[in-house]
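Example 3.2
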Amino acid sequence: MSDRPLKLLLIDQDPIFRLGLRVALEAISDLQITAVVESYTAALQILVEIAGQDPNQVNLVVLELGNGRSTTSQQLGLQFCRQLIALYPNLPIFLLSSIQEQGLLLAAKSIGVNGYSPKGTPVSELVIAMQQVAAGGSYWFDPTQTSITEAINRVSTHPPFPLFKLRNNLRLSGIGYINATLAAVTTQLQVPGIPVLDRAILAGQRRELLAARWLLNKLLVSPQERQEDKIPVTDEPPASPSLSSAIQQNQMPPPLLTTAALQSALFASCITKLQFPLENVTDTPLEIDILREQKKRELLYLILQKLAQQLDELRVSQIEISQLSGVKSTLISDLWQGAITDFFGKFSLIKLGKENIEIVNLLLQNTQVVQTEILNKIPLIFELYSYLLFQTEMYIDNASYAAVSVEAKTQASMILENFLIQIANGVVQPLLNSLADVEIIKQNFYSSRLISTREIERFRNELSWKYRYNNYINEAQAIFESRYEIFVIAPRGIAKTSIYAPRNQELAKLSNIPLFVTLILEFSDAIAPRLKSLVAFLGSGIVFILTQIIGRGLGLIGRGILQGIGSVSLIEKNFKRK
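Structure, written as tokens:
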């Protein structure tokens, strides 16, 4: 790593191993431990903070792939690696894991993880392997080799390249700077309505940056290194758009992010928000309010992971955007069922009387109720899936915004957060219907303020009134006002906001009480200005009568009385003098 220290971010769920590894590595002079965390969420939060300050604070991530026992946690570890690679493609990942299954390690290697060594490797050899990976190479432990040093020597059959580390660090540093600038320029080029002259200037800057990146790879990488690192370099610099094509509005540069990278960035932001307090600060009760905060966070995170897996499967199946509407309900239902199965445990049993009942099977019997009351009413699902899968534009307040724009990301983030919250409500709702007052359920899931039978029944009554109020009044009002009410995760807790959406078709289908509500609103809107005018007129008349007529009359009478009293006093004084 030349003369610069190797800066590590260590991730491991075992507190004893974390402490021991940190102590061992801190004793080495050319290593620095930037942070040591126990969860992927905490690691993402630290990386987000570092990215906004100094990205060079970390140049290698060392992690355990899951907890070494649970298949689910191992899959979550792979998902985290995918997310990390998409967000920080130049940040190497090194597995220091107790896992030895070749299938899992091959999966990690295939998604872009740079190295692996088993726990128990001597620190001196471990440091050599980490330095090799951080310098741009790769290392995968082979149990048939006697030591890591031998394994590293086998990575390359030719002698070490002159000044390899220095040149590689210079190349990575330069490419990192160029990529950051190129991303900013590309984002500006994708802004609709940009002036022709500005577009031409930005296109020229983009062309120069592409040529500089090609030249940097050409000069600082030898042919053998290029073959090992798989750096594509052609004899000519990459083609860049001409001035005329840059001026044409329709010939935009390719998207800045792949759909997977766009999804990872959005999910990383959501994961960061899941560290906020999750108390419901609205006046609308939610089913998940009965859960203790850690269980609530665990459920939302689980649904997010399930959604990520579902999106990966949809990409593999090469689904088309025209097919999304037809499978939307199936996607939501599958996500809900998967969340129930994993959150409560596929084979979890509960004893009711003399019977042992499978919790998941019992809860899934409420499918129709949950779909009717919650799942079918989640708004803008098609827009969310098409944005994540196809980078479609977002329509906000009847204006279109590119997928990579700040406005589109903010809108997508709000829709995603509401989606997670509503699916979580759907997971808890059948529990409240069937097993609300079971002691083992209360001990494992409920908040301490909602464990008595009276509080649970009061909470269920509040939810029941919420459904009625929404069905008859709230939803009709929202449709008439062309908006959706959604729940979002804010720094102070779960909050509520509204977003505009055309809902004319739904308005045309209203009937009975909801239709009556809209008629009352329309009548109110029609009559309110006239009532205000009438009240204002009557108010002005009353003020005129009180001030100009009654007030003046009373004033004259009072003046006469005062004058009479004054005259009597004067007569009395004159009389006394005589």
